[in-house]
Amino acid sequence: MELQATVYDSSYSNLLAQYASIHIACIAHNHTIATFVPPLSRAKILTWWQDRANEVISGFREVLFVLAPDEPRIVIGVVMLSKPQAETGPFRGMVEKLLVSPKWRKKGVGKALMKGLEDIARAKGKTLLVCLVVKPDNGDADRL
């Protein structure tokens, strides 16, 4: 079964706690540099995701997620596309928080997230995507 990314809208607000769980798992599992440092506060990270959801509503950001194929209510990966409002870069999009549950790595989740993100970016007129990869020798992330 091919994994597909779904574009977040407010009807999926019940999934935000799962985004926070994946965020926490990525930081705890392999020390991903992703906004927060241990000790991690679940409440703080959930509030952060709620703020990102509000940015989706305002049009500043897109959030995409992938559900587990065998458990369609379980989020296994998430990624964001921010759309900078600068007059000098209406064509630019920023790839942010590409997070895949440690249990689901190397199974095509990141690829599905990036394909979905590229499709939505193209539809929104974002022809240049920028992604900062900060961990040296992060071959998996570099390949995406």
Helix content: 25-40%
- How big a fraction of the residues is strand? 15-25%
- Biggest sheet features: 5 strands, mixed
Low-confidence stretches: none
Taken from the alpha-carbon principal axes, the silhouette is globular
What is the strand tally? 5
| Count of separate DSSP helical elements | 4
Order of helices and strands: EHHEEEHEH
Spatial strand arrangement across the major sheet: 1-2-3-4-5
Distance between the termini: 20 Å
User: From the helix content, strand content and strand pairing, which structural class follows?
Assistant: alpha+beta
Rg, please?
15 Å
Arithmetic mean of pLDDT:
92
Describe this protein's structure.
This protein has 144 residues and is an alpha+beta fold. The protein has helices at residues 16-30, 42-58, 109-123, 139-143, and strands spanning 5-7, 61-67, 75-82, 92-100, 128-131. The protein has a 5-stranded mixed sheet with strand order 1-2-3-4-5, sandwiched between helices. α1 (16-30) crosses α2 (42-58). The chain starts with a strand and ends with a helix.
Defining key terms:
alpha+beta, 22% strand, 5 strands, 144 residues, 5-stranded mixed beta sheet, globular
